[in-house]
């Protein structure tokens, strides 16, 4: 991938949470969506590409509608991207401390 400039449109993938899970999480409970993103001109925003994502058993509690040990935590919302920890590469940046 060539050097991007602030304002360039970049394609990125996200994992979307389809609906609340009953039992164990299965591949059908999630889907991959490709989106186009850009850092607006004059913005201090940073755009990253996920290289590796953490996927651990505690995430399934965030996918359930019922009360769970993590009920005080933020639950995943159906139709929204899942979130978690990972390793990313900076693709575009309007912030002087983060260079693409």
From TrEMBL:
It comes from Trifolium pratense. This is NADP-dependent alkenal double bond reductase p2. The keyword Oxidoreductase applies. It comes from the Eukaryota. PANTHER family: NADP-DEPENDENT ALKENAL DOUBLE BOND REDUCTASE, PROSTAGLANDIN REDUCTASE. Residues 13-98 form the Oxidoreductase N-terminal domain. Signal peptide: none annotated. Keywords: Oxidoreductase. InterPro entries: ADH_N_2, GroES-like_sf, MDR_fam. The keyword Oxidoreductase applies. GO terms for molecular function: 2-alkenal reductase [NAD(P)H] activity. Gene3D superfamilies: Medium-chain alcohol dehydrogenases, catalytic domain. Pfam families: ADH_N_2.
């Amino acid at each position: 991938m060539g050097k991007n400039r602030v304002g360039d449109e970049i394609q990125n993938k996200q994992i979307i949470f389809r609906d609340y899970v009953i039992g164990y999480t299965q591949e059908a409970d999630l889907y991959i969506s490709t989106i186009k993103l850009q850092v607006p001109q004059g913005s201090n925003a940073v755009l990253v590409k996920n290289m590796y994502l953490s996927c651990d058993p505690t995430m399934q509690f965030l996918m359930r509608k019922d009360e769970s040990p993590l009920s005080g935590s933020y639950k995943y919302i159906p139709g929204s991207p899942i979130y978690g920890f990972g390793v990313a590469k900076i693709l575009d940046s309007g912030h002087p401390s983060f260079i693409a």
